[in-house]
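User: I'm putting together a small comparison set for a docking exercise, and I want a reference complex before I start. The sequence is below, and the ligand is adenosine-5'-triphosphate. Could you produce the 3D structure with the ligand included, as structure tokens?
Assistant: Of course. I'll restate your input first, then give the structure tokens for the complex.
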Amino acid sequence: MSSNSSSQSPVKTTGLHIGDAAPGVAKVDPIIIADNVTRTFGGLKAVDVEHVEIPRGAITALIGPNGAGKTTLFNLLTGFDKPDTGTWTFDGTRLNGIPAFRVARMGQVRTFQLTKALGLLTVLENMKLGAQKQTGENVFSSLLKPLWRKQEVEIEERAMEILARFKLDTKKDDFAASLSGGQRKLLEMARALMSSPKLVMLDEPMAGVNPALTQSLLDHILNLKTEGMSVLFVEHDMHMVRHIADWVIVMAEGRIVAEGDPETVMQDAAVIDAYLGSHQDVDLGVVTGRISGEKTAEVEDLLAEIDAEVGLTDSSAYIADTPTDDTAKEEDTK
Amino acid sequence: MDWEAILSNTASWLISPETIAYALAALGLAVHFGYGGLLNFGMAGFMALGAYGYAISILTFGLPWWAGILVGCLASVVFAFILGIPTLRLRADYLAIVTIAAAEIVRLLFTTQVFDAVTNSADGLGNYHEGFRAANPFPEGTYGFGPWTYNANGWWVRIFGIGLLIIAALLVWLLMRSPWGRVLKGIREDEDAVRALGKNVFAYKMQALIIGGIFGALGGVVFALPSAVVPSVYVTSLTFFIWTILLLGGAATVFGPILGAVIFWVIMGFLSNVLPAMASSGLLPFMSTTQAATLRFIFVGLALMLIVIFRPQGILGNKKELTFVKQ
Amino acid sequence: MSSPHSVPAPRRARTILLFFALLFGALILQSASAAPAQADEVGTEYDFYFAGNVKYDSEPLEDVNITVEGNGYKADVDTDAEGKWKIGVPEKGTYTVTLDEETLPEGVIVAEGSASVESEIALTNSKIVNYFLGEGVRETTSFFDQFVERTVNGLNFGLLLALAAVGASLVFGTTGLSNFAHGEMVTFGAVMALMFTNLQLPLWAALPAAVVMSGVFGYVLDTGLWRPLRRKGIGIVQVMIVSIGLSLLIRYVYLYFIGGGTYQLPGAGEAGINLFGSVTLSITDMISMATSAVVLLAMAWWLVRTRTGKATRAISDNPSLAAASGIDVDRVVRIVWILAGALAGLAGILWAYFRPGIKWDMGTQILLLVFGAIVLGGLGTAFGALLGSLIVGLLVELSTLWIPSDIKYVGALVVLIGVLLVKPQGLLGRKERIG
Ligand SMILES: Nc1ncnc2c1ncn2[C@@H]1O[C@H](COP(=O)(O)OP(=O)(O)OP(=O)(O)O)[C@@H](O)[C@H]1O
Ligand SMILES: [Mg+2]
């Protein structure tokens, strides 16, 4: 089932939208329709989407600068977070207030920006966990192996098939914790496929994957489309987006600022303005700060204050600058 | 020092009701923490509910002994729901704090004068043995060999307890090799990932909490069977001893909790005999016999720290399968 | 404690050993003199005793509670079926013998004299105390007076709880550790105060010395245990369980040295000054509240104004970022541990006066209230912990207006669970990020 598309340019799906490509444009066959979705953290409006439609049977890229609200939008659409306002439907079903696991069961699976491999389960167990409607997952029938043995064998076959495609089959008995970062990304994606989803949502699938693997990852994503799934993915690397996306949605400061096919969106003034700035030639994948924490406004203020007082950011200088009688002073306050 | 008596006393702890009771509770904790990653620090509460459920249904409501056991288990199921509904959706450390608080609530409610008529407050309950002893299939008399010589009632309690323990261990083994167990272990690793795969994480955690809680309650029942129910037993220290046992044996194993309980009680039994004996024969200067007896609890604390730091997988755990890789 | 980070490792280890050796040496000295004082038969090991017989209309009254208090000693007992009671005391002197009128049957009161009498064992080894009971209605304090008194008590308790909770919360914020041994750090202050007063140090020296020792204790724990564990990169749950082991260890070390009895610090349980109505407040209570308030204000100032304080908050907010911005996380954490130790120790001393009494396992009681306060305020925010403590303190004391005092902690713990239901991130906390 492996694809040879690495050598040639992938076939783009076109004619997805109705009317002019503008933020919130209607699609011919949308799989997700969201209206008026907002989410605020404290005073910060992380997501503020008036209207957006995700096309079916195509690969849609969601791009935007760091902190644009892409992950937050993912969380909202998949039920991992609750919006302040808004409604959205998946495949015609309203999803408001539906818990995340139900959303996943409907065929809308996601991966996470910070990979969530289940470290102390083997690669194969990770895969099997992805399968839906398992008899043996019921607490009572789990006690009687004959009830689920046959299904387990089928699931294992499917898992091995997908693992082979992702070239992870030799690692099936290793703990997921022993995989490399890139392999974990692959595993997470493979695991998501075990549920035969309708829509796959990938949050930065390429982040941390070595260049040798990116090509095969791209092929996997393209394969999903060939198999009839829809894909929505977040990516900072513009080359990749240009290469595989059929449609691009651009977010900035929580809003959707542009939509269109890759070539035209890259030329869009709003995009260049909001996102690319003057660094259009820089590979943005490099610029992305993939540190674990997010700077909140409060931390920044505190750090600024500290910096202002110390006048230094160098750590060794900071220690030297710190009088040891500080400790004694603290004791005095008793 | 009378070594023969010391060794014989020590050996008798191998199958003492306390050992069996702690093993059951530790097995419950293995389901909670070892497999499910649930930080339950309220095991003493589950045990208290089992013991009191048993004693009160017999003494106050005149139920037969087996119904008393069922009531004890039922009480722990209700307790699991009360604990689980508010906290299972929250962070792991909230569950820790809520469970330990809830167990204390349970203990205080059994201790208070308010319900004295039913609970006999701080003095606890006794004299509920009739029904259970009447059901004893073993012949009258005292028999056995060496340190394991008991009367008919002694054997009945032990065999009954061991039977419960075997059933519990079998259940855990069946559950954990099944897809259900796989989901539970997945939740231990990262519940959001499991949620994203379409599993009802909350329901699984609740089921695990209930199953482990029932084992805890059964432990409480076995603890109560031969003697009495006293509220001061069900303090947080009891919970922590169960944790020590679990981590000693191996958290994510079926036999670890049982092995842990046996080792724990045999060593405790040994020390409780040998330390005071050493103190009174002058081998431990500057120490009264009471102090010498206290010493073993100090060792428990120390042992718990050392196990967790240096061998977190316990005796039976797989070196690679550290339960604690998560930061 | 000058420039602790420059002490080379072996020397530091030796310092720690020396510290503990001295500590336990001192404890051994006094464990000889202080024998455990609690048994079923109260105080039978002593040579001197108070005794009496409680009768009404020539009928003996059972289960009437009698308390003997004085000379740093306190014990109580219930009368037996014959109405008899006996309480042993360690030394001759004047004691307050109190009959708890609440435990008398309905309609019976102490008719002549007071329910609380001063009585002296001077020449003989024993003293008989009898009460004249009669028919009558107990004079009860008005609800308003009770309410005011409980509120004041609640504030007092809440403030001292806040001392412990703020420390624990700072530790949680900077290291992520839910420290189950924090209760034992509270007990430590009380035990040190007991030790120093037993060594005949005057109170004004003994109590500050105990607080300083508690700070040193915090430092020792960080240097000897927590920092090496952080270095080892041990997981958060694992460290939490280590703290449980430590809590067991320390708790039983206390039992080893001071035994199972309850001990009083000098000046504990002194009579209150009547403020108005039936509202009384003792000097100790006033000093205690003032101390807590001043120290908490100082803490707040430290957190908001000083560089280290700000760094502490920055680390609580985002450790990796703070470290990346050049904050010496290890140093800040060390200071936090010292502060947490000193604050907990102070809380322990004040609590020993509030309860009153020092007991080896008193820490387990307060630990849950500390956790409750922290969760209530939102994990890891110091000001949340302060607010949470005041609420818990008031709740515990005010709830006794309606529920029996032996389940007064239940109310606070139930509220804790309730708050989690409604507002899982606590009153001042914020939500976590997913994905
Ligand atoms: N749980 C939270 N609490 C507070 N603020 C949050 C939370 N989650 C997200 N934010 C804020 O919302 C904004 C959007 O964050 P989000 O993670 O959605 O950005 P993103 O587009 O995925 O960025 P990146 O490309 O860096 O992954 C950011 O400013 C972030 O700090
Ligand atoms: Mg993101």
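The first strand of chain C starts at residue 48 and ends at 53. Residues 159 and 292 of chain C are 6 Å apart (CA to CA).
User: Thanks, that's exactly what I needed.
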